[in-house]
Amino acid sequence: MPSGRVHNLINIGAYSVISAGALIASRQQLVTITPAQALAFTLAFAVGTFLLSPDLDLAEGRVDSKRHWGLLGVLWVPYGLLFSHRGLSHSWVLGPLTRLAYVALMVALVVGLLRYVAPGVPLPEVPQPISVKVALPLVAGYYASQWLHLIADGVRPDHGMKRGVRKVRRR
Ligand SMILES: [Zn+2]
């Protein structure tokens, strides 16, 4: 299985190919991509690659994706303990959602704690619902970063959906 650095390089390489393809396609007027959409895709792809890698399921140890969080990396230790390496965390559909849900939980805990400890502190407002036109590239960028990781790991899309565990182990 590739190391964190190799995963990052694969994702950066794939991003260059995707963005070159998107640029050519929009020059040829095959698709229309607004700067906001390109930015949304890029941000989500970068967050998925560097901050929300599937290998956070190893966060109880030393792992590249945890290091990118700096001091906050400690927050991922429970996630690493909760999810076995290359288990649900490495499934194609639910895996990426487990990390988003985990982040949401952490944010909710911090906000809850702040409200309790310092009720007067103004909190950033919840952003208005974003349009589908921006949400779609966000989802695409995040999932693309995750799927590239899984492909590099040799994880198949039906991972975790059927009992293929024994077959894999026997190899
Ligand atoms: Zn992995």
Identify the notable features of this structure and list them briefly.
171 residues, mainly alpha, 7 helices, disordered C terminus, binds zinc ion
Explain what the structure shows.
- The chain is mainly alpha-helical and 171 residues long.
- The chain has one domain.
- It has seven helices and no strands.
- The chain has helices at residues 4-27, 35-51, 64-67, 77-82, 94-117, 132-153, 165-170.
- The longest helix has 24 residues, at 4-27.
- The radius of gyration is 18 Å and the shape is globular.
- The protein starts with a helix and ends with a helix.
- Residues 163-171 have low confidence and may be disordered.
- Bound molecules: zinc ion.
- The site of zinc ion has 6 residues, from helix 6.
Summarize the helices and strands and which ones pair or pack.
Elements: H1 4-27, H2 35-51, H3 64-67, H4 77-82, H5 94-117, H6 132-153, H7 165-170
Helix pairs in contact: 1-2, 1-6, 2-6
